[in-house]
Write a structure and sequence with these properties.
2 domains, Rieske Iron-sulfur Protein, 5 helices, 21% helix, four-stranded antiparallel β-sheet, Cholesterol_7-desaturase, 2 iron, 2 sulfur cluster binding, seven-stranded antiparallel β-sheet, Naphthalene 1,2-dioxygenase Alpha Subunit, Chain A, domain 1, alpha+beta
Amino acid sequence: MFIRNAWYVAATTAECNTERPLSRTLLGDKVVLFRTGDGRPAALADRCAHRLAPLSLGDIEADGLRCRYHGMKFDATGRCVEIPGQADIPPVMRVRDYPVVERHGFIWIWPGDAARADAELIVDCHWNNAPGWPTASGYIHYKANYQLVADNLLDFSHLTFVHRTTLANSAFPNARPDVVPFERGIRLYRQILDCEPSPLHAMAGGFTGKVDFWNRQVWWLPSVFENWAGSAEAGGEGPPHERPGALHFRHFSLLTPETEKSTHYFWIHPCEFPHGDAGLIDPVGDGIRTAFAEDRWVIEAQQEVMDASPGVQPKGAGSDVALNRVRHMIAQRVRQEAQAAAVAATEGA
């Protein structure tokens, strides 16, 4: 169950190059990513129009991608521009191309109706390695449905129990966020005053006593999680996020479904440290990687249990408000896309 008319991260900018094509499955589609001779990213269906051999096994040339089986060459729009030994190229000799945009260190892809691809809808991740924001980053491959990963990100009550040495905060289970829906997703607001800092915040912010903590989160449909979180020494004047000496994290988790039971998980963690010590980004990054490994262990085990328990439905709890809202919004968008596709098919018949 995927929303197709949306932007997803297909790869990092470094993964997409002019040397070797990159094969990746995205929303069930096998896609090949590459750069043309002028450096522009391109994405095509990963199958030659001739005999359906994977184009990702081919060679990148200045003006396109050449299949290694019989040598057909396709440009960035999917049009065949050369058939060895044949001057005439039939119009049907082409493969699907996908809209792509390079922005904020990522290659974004639009798997749906190309006519609806609006680059203004790409989530703003400009903090990624921006001046004054040293950034940790990474990629995780999950053997689990992307909505299980989304559930995890939308319910922070698990931090106390899953992330005991990294993100744990004993106040989280009792600090329910305010959940505010909007057209493109939901916003969550949480503030906890006079609490013990998490191990990661204590290390990164140099806090030795209690802190005032905040996080402001946005879930951008279908699958981008933005989390502005931080801490300041407890008891200061004004909102914690406006105080001098506050620690700021501008985290983004960017989920791209691979299949119904696997997920590409890209993440960036830009930081603004209270004392400007950019060297702290390495231990912070290590802490985030440890925390995400803890999440993956639980979520993949959860997927295995669900696969072995067909027909058994999870029971709800009060902390499920945000994740239930997002699941409902995703299901609604998927239905709308299916209905629109059915109408288009009928009109085109």
